[in-house]
Design a protein that fits this description.
The structure holds two protein chains of two kinds.
Chain A (H helix, E strand, L loop, with lengths): L3 E3 L3 H6 L5 E12 L6 E12 L3 E5 L6 H8 L7 E6 L2 E2 L5 H11 E4 L11 H11 L4 H14 L15 H13 L5 E5 L7 H16 L4 E5 L11 E6 L2 E6 L6
Parallel strand pairs in A: 4-9, 4-10, 7-8, 8-9
Antiparallel strand pairs in A: 1-11, 2-3, 2-5, 5-6, 10-11
Chain B lengths: L1 H10 L1 H32 L1 H4 L6 E4 L15 H7 L4 E15 L5 E9 L10 E4 L10 E5 H5 L21 E4 L2 E10 L9 E5 H7 L9 E6 L5 H12 L2 E4 H15 L2 H30 L1 H9 L4 H33 L11 H27 L10
Parallel strand pairs in B: 3-8, 5-7
Antiparallel strand pairs in B: 1-9, 1-10, 2-3, 2-6, 2-9, 4-7, 5-8, 6-7
Classes of the chains: A alpha/beta, B alpha+beta.
Chain lengths: ~250, ~375
């Protein structure tokens, strides 16, 4: 069955899912700059993402996708509206509380991987645990386990520079998974990868998160990976203009 | 995460070496120039240090430093001996007398005339001969460096090496014959003139005719008498200047600090070391942080607090400070050891290391402050900007 949500209907339809919302946004706005140079990046975004869903966020460059995931992930303050993640509104938290919340509940996969070139991949994957104060030995042990689950068990002592792009992204996924976050935010996770590798990365990402019920938000331009989405939200000019379950409805 | 910070620093070898080089350079220049400065100052008062037997130095009240001799009447010696609290007091002649060398050239020499009876204030490190030999006719003891260089005898054959002055050789001091009976080691002096020891009575015959020839009276405090208090007592009773050895050393140092260009010359070199070190280290460390900014942004996004990130940066800065200081001071120590016994004035003291260490920490912290400022202001959202 194909569903097609228009912007006004989207919140109500999303809530129709039988799972509690992992992310709930209402009337989100965000401006950059001031005066005549002001740019409105988000223009009243409403969005609900149930727990365990893989939502892809698509749209033309500059439409506000990155700003939206930045606000949802709590790394950027909104101007107006409401946004809660697992029932917690970042605006109600102190700076330290927000940082701790992110560290515990949110995983990140970046377009440029952001792996530290001078650390081994095990050390890179262990960073979220080290930030939580997990002893280094234990963190590295768990990192090796997660890396093995993404097929890099034999290369844990390599530095990222010795890996291919796809392998590096798998390390980034291991890093995003290691502390068992409830939400993972991915920014263009396959844009630097060839088709085959991109597919493998998405399979891995989806496989690793579906059994835990992890919620995934994937910002992408890569239409080849749309098939992995539960829903696809299309953004344009700072708004979500449609949410669909099949790419062909975009 | 602190280990991660160290790995980020050390594993980025090119930048790490660059930063370390800046800190090492600063540490090296600051420590080396300071040590040479201290070495020169130490030489300035070396004559005081080489006479450890004296608790108190008595002199004309107008004397400002060790080489500023204003001779007193010989009778002042007995006046000092009469002061309560004085265990013993001996005369010391210190003056510059011209020596005529065998090749016909002249060489100014620093001549010490020590007490004939006790030989107190004689050289404490004899290399050849005995101190007691000074009691022989026309006897003098010459310092080894001068014997090997400025007072060396001409070569026996053309193009040959000069022969070191040795025991049994003769000198002509102000038209008086002097026989070398011993060679000694002394602490180098500021002027680096040859140093010659003889008895007080003989020194006064070598010296140009003057009514007053007593340069100093060296005093030993009686048991239980504080040398500082004895100085005050001597001054009160005789009207002469009296200093403990330490006070006289400081008076000498202060004279050089106030009246010569030495402090400003070395001060400029040390300041240059500090500022160049700060500039190089600051620039390199700031660049290092800029290069790692995207990782710091990722750490922030992943839950690193500002205090964690600041701790990481400060640890990195402190690490280069400690390593740079260690390398710099190590190189300076090696330099100092390899230059020992040469004309270079060099003395590395713990106070210099302490000051240089503090300066290096300040340099590294200044560099870190720039980097910390950047990281604290960093928006974690920049991590999504690619």
């Amino acid at each position: 069955m194909t569903t097609h949500h228009d912007i006004t209907a989207a919140p109500a339809r999303a809530l129709a899912h039988d799972r509690p919302p992992a992310v709930r946004c209402r009337g989100l706005t965000k401006d950059y700059g001031s005066g005549t140079a002001r740019v409105r990046a988000l223009r009243g975004v409403d969005l609900d993402i149930p727990e365990g869903e893989l939502l892809m966020l698509v749209g033309p460059s500059g439409c506000g996708k990155t700003t939206l995931i930045s606000v949802v992930a709590g790394v950027l303050d909104r101007d107006q509206g409401e946004c809660s993640v697992f029932g917690t509104d970042f605006a109600s938290l102190s700076s330290g509380g927000r940082t701790r919340f992110r560290g515990t509940n949110i995983g990140f996969v970046f377009q440029a991987f952001n792996l530290i070139p001078t650390l081994t991949i095990a050390e890179n994957a262990a960073v979220p645990l080290l930030l939580q104060g997990v002893p280094r030995r234990e963190a590295l042990e768990r990192a090796r386990g997660v890396l093995a689950s993404v097929g890099l068990g034999e290369r844990t002592d390599n530095t990222p520079g010795k890996l291919s792009g796809g392998q590096q992204q798998r390390v980034a996924i291991a890093r995003a998974l290691i502390h068992r976050p409830r939400l993972i935010v991915c920014d263009e996770p396959t844009s630097a990868l060839d088709h085959h590798t991109g597919m493998k990365v998405m399979e891995m990402l989806k496989g690793a998160t579906s059994e835990r019920g992890t919620t995934l938000i994937v910002v992408t331009h890569d239409s080849r990976i749309f098939e992995y989405a539960d829903r696809i939200a299309h953004m344009d000019d700072g708004q979500i203009d449609k949410i669909v379950t099949h790419a062909k409805d975009l | 995460m602190y280990l991660v910070a160290l790995q980020m620093l050390i594993n980025d070898k090119a930048k790490f070496v660059g930063i370390l080089l800046g800190v090492t350079l600063a540490s090296l220049v600051i420590t080396q120039q300071s040590s040479i400065f201290v070495g020169i100052m130490t030489r300035a008062y070396s004559a005081i240090s080489d006479i450890p037997a004296a608790d108190v130095w008595v002199m004309d009240p107008k004397v400002q430093y060790i080489d500023d001799t204003k001779p007193m009447a010989a009778t002042e010696l007995n006046r000092v001996r009469g002061v309560e609290g004085v265990a013993w007091a001996v005369p010391l002649y210190k003056g510059i007398i011209r020596a005529r060398l065998e090749n016909g050239q002249f060489q100014n020499c620093n001549v010490f005339g020590i007490d004939d009876a006790t030989l107190v204030a004689g050289p404490i490190r004899m290399v050849h001969g005995r101190l007691e030999d000074l009691r022989r006719d026309d006897a003098v003891i010459v310092d080894r460096f001068a014997a090997n260089t400025r007072l060396a005898r001409p070569p026996t054959e053309p193009g040959g090496k000069p022969r070191p002055l040795a025991v049994g050789d003769t000198l002509e001091l102000n038209d008086h014959r002097a026989v070398v009976v011993g060679i000694c080691d002394i602490t180098r002096t500021f002027q680096n003139l040859p140093t010659i020891f003889t008895t007080y009575s003989r020194a006064t015959t070598f010296a140009p005719r003057e009514r007053k020839l007593l340069s100093f009276v060296l005093v030993k405090a009686a048991e239980g008498v504080d040398p500082g208090e004895l100085c005050a007592t001597i001054t009160r009773h005789t009207g002469l200047g009296a200093y403990t050895a330490d006070q006289f050393r400081w008076a000498t140092v202060l004279y050089f600090l106030r009246n010569t260009g030495i402090p400003i010359n070395f001060g400029i070199a040390i300041a240059l070391g500090f500022f160049i070190g700060t500039a190089i280290t600051g620039f390199m460390f700031y660049n290092f942080t800029l290069d790692n900014l995207k990782y710091f942004a990722a750490f922030k996004a992943m839950g690193a607090t500002d205090s964690t990130l600041l701790g990481m940066i400060l640890l990195q800065a402190l690490t280069v400070a400690v390593l740079g200081f260690g390398l710099g001071s190590g190189l300076v120590s090696w330099f100092g050891a390899s230059m020992q016994g040469t004309a270079l004035a060099f003395r590395l003291i713990w106070q210099t290391l302490l000051i240089a260490g503090a300066a290096v920490v300040v340099i590294s912290m200044l560099a870190a402050i720039l980097a910390c400022h950047k990281v604290v202001r960093l928006e974690p959202a920049t991590v999504f900007k690619g």
